[in-house]
Amino acid sequence: MKSRKIGVLAFHGDVIEHIEVTQRAAKNLHIDIEVVSVRTKESLQNLDALIIPGGESTTLHKLCEREGMWEKMKKIKNIFGTCAGAIMLAKVIHHKTLGQKTLELMDIEIDRNAYGRQTESFDKDVKTSLGNIHAVFIRAPRIKRVGKEVKILARNEGETIACEQKIGNYYYLAACFHPELSSTLFHEYFIKKVYQM
Ligand code: GLN
């Protein structure tokens, strides 16, 4: 049987946290998954899924372009983006920097740094359709609009903070907060989607 492989984009942000949580999630689900760091075009090869951590979306975009990974990333079947990663997935972004691009894969409109400065970061318990989670928002974006095909998984004060979209064989999951800092909830959910468990 072909071995299972999930990549974590590893330029900056919560890379180690995502790797560890994905490994723990796989263990909880009793399946073997190789979790690899992705920094080159070559390491995108044969991935079942990619996780894009939070960090700085402008930097992530620049580094992915520099490494010539951009077009290949768009062809990955399953992508989970958290915070800056969610920005990377969005079709439309507000307050982008000059020349900033996204992968334009999910039909969502997202506003960068919409809660204000770093000091406006916060954390709180939220209910999601996957279960409860302690959600950590670090200079988080706000999702301003979701398309008809996008399923909302969690809201904070009426605003979408986690959602998913399936487009044919492609699957995308986005969270405005950092699920990797709290539990395996979102990673287990993502793994189940990727491997149709
Ligand atoms: N403010 C960052 C951006 O615009 C996102 C912050 C985060 O990923 N925690 O890319």
CATH 2nd-level architecture: 3-Layer(aba) Sandwich
CATH superfamily: Class I glutamine amidotransferase (GATase) domain
Could you tell me the CATH topology label.
Rossmann fold
Cα distance, first to last residue?
A: 16 Å
Number of helices: 5
Rg calculated over all Cα atoms: 15 Å
Tell me what portion of residues adopts beta-strand conformation: 35-45%
Structural class: alpha/beta
Task: Quickly name the level 1 CATH class.
Answer: Alpha Beta
- The general outline is globular
Q: Can you list the strand order of the major beta sheet?
A: 2-1-3-4-12-11-10
User: How helical, in percent, are the residues?
Assistant: 10-25%
* Oligomerization: single chain
Outline the low-pLDDT stretches.
none
Order of helices and strands: EHEEHHEHEEEEEEEEH
Average pLDDT metric: 96
List the bound ligands: glutamine
What number of structural domains do the residues give?
1
Binding site for L-glutamine: 55-57, 112, 138-139
Organism: Candidatus Gottesmanbacteria bacterium GW2011_GWA2_47_9
Protein name: glutaminase
Active site: 83 (nucleophile), 178 (charge relay system), 180 (charge relay system)
Keywords:
197 residues, alpha/beta, Rossmann fold, 7-stranded mixed sheet, 3-stranded mixed sheet, binds glutamine, lyase activity, EC 3.5.1.2, transferase activity, glutamine amidotransferase
